Amino acid sequence: MTFVSIFFAYSEKNIQTKGPVNHSNYNIDNNTLVRVKDNNSKSVVVIPKAMREKTLIACHDDVGHMDAKKTLHNLQLRYWWPNMRKDCKAYVRSCHKCQIVNRRTANAYGLLQQLPIPSTPWEIVSADHIICLPETRNGNTNMLAQIDHATRYVIATPSASLAAHTVTDALYHNIILRYGPPNMYLSDGGTAFTARHTQRFLQKYGITQSTTPPYSPQANSIVERANGIIVSSLKKMIDKNPNKWDELLPNALLAINTTKQNSTKKSNPLFTSWI
Ligand SMILES: [Zn+2]
Fold first, then answer.
1. Do 214 and 113 touch, CB atoms closer than 8 A?
2. How much distance in Å is there from the Cα of 152 to the middle of ligand 1?
3. 111-167 tens-digit pLDDT
4. How many helices (H) and strands (E) does the chain have?
5. DSSP assignment, residue 60?
6. In this structure, are residues 234 and 140 in contact, taking their beta carbons and an 8 Å threshold?
7. pLDDT over 90, % of the chain
8. What is the DSSP string of 196-262?
9. Most buried among 51, 127, 234, 244, by the most CB within 10 A?
10. How confident is the model at residue 106 (pLDDT cuts 50, 70, 90)?
11. pLDDT score recorded for residue 188
């Protein structure tokens, strides 16, 4: 069942709302109850209680198990129900797969340190897994996104597992062999990043490792924003062939890496990457 097809067949007779309702905020659009946002610019589909879990699955599980903030952002783009924010937070916090890979899924961070400002491209790299994607013909179900802080250039590598060597292989072949070892490698506390194998590898190349708290959420937001863009770009491309996402990944990355970046103000990170 695709991400979009689940929701739009629901007519107003399926919708139940509790408590006082300001009807001026609601419309029937194409037999679907929609809620008009305050600025009147966009309407979002009102999701009945029976469909909320499926909606959460579509906006969290099916798009790579993003954290609560990103999942809520996905939801808010299209849907609304009372207490959606609270339900989203509770759902992500209790997600079994997120817990298995020890991902930081909530937005509760401790004391923050200032993120160092890179002086050259590929000096500071953030990495993150996007997990539980539809299995491809090549057996891939995850991807590792690695992003350069200076240029926001993104490299994403599909993998069949979350084993530590998938991280070190991707780092070695896609970054070290091309640009040299970065000074700093940031990630969450996922087991692939904290494994002895990964720690030894980083030590061997003189790379300082940081596994989240000190440098988040700023560091996290860089890689999570990249993840969100990768997933949304792929979603547009894969359409009826979700099992081919790994084949279409290079196309999505080219589009991402040649699009103007708000943060760097450069129109082409490919260019900034080599100057
Ligand atoms: Zn999850």
1. yes
2. 25
3. 455 677 888 999 999 998 888 888 999 999 999 999 998 888 999 999 999 999 999
4. 11, 9
5. T
6. no
7. 39
8. HHHHHHHHHTTPEEEESGGGTTHHHHHHHHHHHHHHHHHHHHHTT-GGGHHHHHHHHHHHHHTSPPT
9. 234
10. very low
11. 83
H or E element: which one contains 145?
strand 142-148
Going from the Cα of 45 to the center of ligand 1, the distance in angstroms, rounded, reads 23
Query: Cα(65) to centroid of ligand 1, in Å?
Result: 4
Q: How far is CA 81 from the centre of its chain?
A: 23
Q: Which two tokens stand for residue 233?
A: 């770009």
Q: What contacts 24+ positions apart, CB below 8 Å, involve 53-59?
A: 53/91, 54/6, 55/6, 55/7, 55/79, 56/87, 56/88, 56/91, 58/3, 58/6, 58/7
Ligand 1 center to 88 CA (angstroms): 11
Task: Please say if the pLDDT value at position 264 is more than 70.
Answer: no
Taking a C-beta distance cutoff of 8 angstroms, is the pair 117, 138 a contact? Answer: no
